[in-house]
Structure formats: C-alpha cells, structure tokens
Amino acid sequence: MIIGLGLAILIYEILRRQVLKRAALKIRRAGQRTTDAGMQAALNHLASAVEVQEVHGTIHSVPVADVWGRGVMAFEYVLETPGMAKADLAEVRRLFNNQLQVYATAQQITAFQDAGPALRVTDAWLRDGQLHVDVAYLMNEATLEYLEDLRRLNPSR
Predict the structure, then answer these.
(1) pLDDT in tens, 70-100
(2) What pTM was computed for the model?
(3) 120 has which bridge partners?
(4) How far is CA 36 from each of CA 32, 41, 61, 103, rounded to the nearest angstrom?
(5) Are the C-beta atoms of residues 104 and 122 closer than 8 Å to each other?
(6) For a disulfide at 81, which of 41, 65, 106, 131, Cβ 3.0-4.6 Å?
(7) Residue-wise pLDDT tens digits, 101-141
(8) Which of 66, 69, 115, 121 is nearest to 91 (CA)?
(9) Nearest-CA neighbor of 41 among 99, 94, 81, 98?
(10) What letter does residue 130 receive in the DSSP assignment?
(11) Which domains occur in the chain, in start order?
C-alpha cells in the first residue's frame, strides 16, 4: 500500500511538471511570435539599412534568457550587416526601439504594469559581420525583473 501511494505521488508529480512545462512553452511561443512580428515590422521599415537573416522566409529568434529564469520573454535576432561599425550601434538601438514602439502602439501591445514600451531592445552588438539584437517583450513580472537586473549590471544604458 505504501509503495502504491509513493508510486501514485511520483506519477502525479511527473504529470504535473509536464503540464506546467507545456503551459510555459505555449506562453513563451506566444510571446516570441509577438516579438517576431514586431521585429519584422521594424525591419520592413528599416529595410534599406539592414538585411535580415532568413529562416524559411521569416526572421528567426532564439530565447536569450534561460539563464535568468522561467518566463523571461527576451529573444535574440541575428542580422547580416556588412560594413556596420560599432559606432552605429547606439543609432541602431534607437531606430529599432522607435519602430518597435510604433508597432506595439498600433497593435495595442502594452507592458506589464505599464512599465514603459512593451517591446524594447535590451542589447545590440556586432560579431563576425553580423548584428545581434536582443529584444524583450515586457509581458510579465519575470521580464520586468530581467530588465531591472540588466540595468543593475550596466547602469549606463
């Protein structure tokens, strides 16, 4: 009887974790789709400045915040930018942030607790002729805390 009870508890925990994991993945994918759409709109507007790295005809993003914890909606985009210099990064951030804000306003996407722009560039850097851009979607507390952690690590931004 005790073995049966222990086995039942074990099975329950495994199933519960699977359900929670699946729900978190659905939420992350929804946030990623929203962020991808915002980046695509921004890139369409800024098409003369950069070429996007395409994967099956659409932009490709990967989550960047696994280290920071569950629920953080931050994604990295890699763009082909031949000839771009490090000095251009501040202007690139500004342009993307402006276009992401225009998109979010048009789509009525709001930030968690009205914490400013819902979609924003959190980092941008050049590596091997490619522009890497991290974009956060402030849809929850975890992402807001992530941005606060980034501010503490680099107060100049």
Answers:
(1) 789 999 999 887 778 888 899 889 999 999 9
(2) 0.80
(3) 136
(4) 6, 9, 7, 11
(5) no
(6) 131
(7) 999 999 999 999 988 899 999 999 999 888 899 999 999 99
(8) 121
(9) 99
(10) E
(11) 2-153 (3.30.980)
